[in-house]
Amino acid sequence: MKGLDERINESLDILIKNEALIGYELRSMLKSFKEEKKEVGYSFGEICYWHYEAFTDCLNEDIYKIAAAIELLILSFDIIDDIQDQDSNYSWSKTPELSLNVAVSLLVMASRIISGTSFEHKGTAIQILEEYALRSINGQQLDLLNICRDEQSYLQMIDQKSGSLTAMGCLIGEVLAKGEISSEVEEYGKYIGIIQQIKNDVQSLKAWGPKNDLLNKRYSLPIIYLLSQKNDVSKAVINYYNGDIDAILDNNATENELTHGGAIRYAITIKNVYKFKALNNLENVAINELGKDFLKKLMK
Taking the CA of residue 224 as centre, how many other CA atoms within 13 Å lie in the half-sphere pointing to its CB? Predict the structure, then answer.
């Protein structure tokens, strides 16, 4: 029996091949980018599938097309995000002007694919896709502006940027199955995205390279905590962020302060708060054990 990732990947191949409105050059780039995406898996499409499977009595094979459509939208966001951040080794970052056309094509294709399926509630699914995609774009705008410099505003931003996309996958699956959505699914869907973002924030600080948020003067939960401390390291980081030409960052001292001074522990504690909330909501939703296990893995 084929695995879920494999079924989604097959649907992606077919959908890309059969899209008549794109030419050879665009199709070739799209196929290439999809192959790179395949390496990290299709968790957003899987989220959609498990929520559809949980609430339906009869599996419609078009669900794999829906999962693929969601992955096309996520890929478009990944491409745009990496081009904006200029910190990716993916091939789409090497030709940004051409890759943007691929990203825009993917956005349009996602809606077209859902519209072409046989689901009764596909119109509502498209509305959810558009609404939560716009919420995520708004969060991405706030992130790029780098203006969320306290815990509350930062969590609100990643709720929009990351939480909206995971909630979108959950809710599309649910609405296709039963024609309505539930607050429990929306809430833990958002929490999963927040958890994933906090994990990425912590991971960013483990290597002193071009993707390090602190070296790039970006704000994240561990950095917000560090900047709130009144010690020599935090003062040096504040001066660095303020553009003081005499500011010197001691990488070892800064890394030690992040690791042992409470900043990373603080971020992990916040992550675990959202994990606890998500697990509480998940217990009230009738997803089978395979689906629940998959969602719990995303919360680790």
Answer: 19
Do the domains 182-300 and 1-181 match in fold? yes
Can you identify the CATH homologous superfamily of domain 182-300?
Farnesyl Diphosphate Synthase (1.10.600.10)
The answer to whether the beta carbons of residues 175 and 125 sit under 8 Å apart is: yes
Considering the entire predicted model, what is its pTM?
0.95
Q: What is the tens place of the pLDDT at every residue in 193-229?
A: 999 999 999 999 988 888 899 999 999 999 999 999 9
CA–chain centroid gap for 26, Å, is 24
Residue 159 has what DSSP assignment? I
Q: pLDDT (tens digit, 9 = 90+) per residue, 37-69?
A: 899 999 999 999 999 999 999 999 999 999 999
Sequence ranges of the domains in the chain: 1-181, 182-300
Classified by CATH at the fold level, domain 1-181 comes out as Farnesyl Diphosphate Synthase (1.10.600)
**Do residues 66 and 47 lie in contact, with contact meaning Cβ atoms separated by under 8 Å?**
no
